[in-house]
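Contributing new records

If you add data, match the layout below exactly. Sequence lines come first and carry their own label; structure lines follow with theirs. Keep one chain per record. Anything else will be rejected by the validation script.
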Amino acid sequence: MLQAPDGVHVIRRGAFEAWLMPLGARLMQVWWLAAPEGPRPLCLGFERPDDYLADRMSMGSVCGRYGNRIQDAQLTIAGRSIRLDSNHPMGHCIHGGAAGFGWRDWTVASHTDTHLTFSLESPAGDQGFPGYCRAHISYQWEDDNVLRWHATATVDEPCPINLIPHPYWNLDGQATIANHRIWIAATQYLPLDERELPLPLADVQGTPFDFQQPCCIPIDAIPSIDGALAVGAPASEKLQNAVAPVATCTAGGLTLTVKTDRPFVHIYAAAGLRPQSFIDPTTHAPLTPQALGVQHQPGAGLCLETEDWPNGPAIGRPEVWYNPERSYQHTTLWQFTTDIKR
């Protein structure tokens, strides 16, 4: 029987268990309880909740108010310019600012054996964003092997919203994700310019982002894998609550299927991941947290972030803006299927 650390909330069903924590409404860990070797961690993380004070990689957190980046940390509303927190090395706002939603202590609004909902209130001007925002993130085991992530948010004046789940998956417990076979339902992706801002959609063929046929990421290609792939029509053009399979990842006798109602999957092969450290607030000594699962190094995990348009507010995407008459909704399902015969 697994024992979650103090301050960590558990939801369980069948052969899977999820550990959740209020800091960042975070998916701390998913355990495959019936793995042949015993309970196997399927995400990258740290052993203790306090260790996440060292995290600079949004490990398992919910990024927002607007995940990914906004050019020059600037919004324009009806001719009025609004300055956001600039926390990207090239002057953009990324993942909602330095004190974005992934750094907040969310409140547990409800909790059962199979379901947990976090809530957060964000005042007007938070990281520069306009209007008061109230957000909810729910995690629920819908079946013995399906974990549903659902985000909602309301605002009292126009504001862009893009809440992103950010777990780093490693399904086989190996040092890197080199043996993970990946499929993504995308024929186009967003190349980046020299300022790490998205260019117009381009064909994936002939690029490292072509996962139309299941394939592995070569070790030498890991530094190249950091981009958004278009997996469907914008949410505004889909049927309400239309959730479709957009990606699979297979390794270690397990397949993760990602289903969502969002138009993009941002794939990141964790090239920037390193062991992280922080200063103990009591002793002022440097501490290096212990990894829960695979040790943190480049290529140790795979992000498949479901999201709306990167830089959407700056490139005039009206569907990323919400107002008192239009609330934000985002659903992602993670389905785990085993191919191990017993």
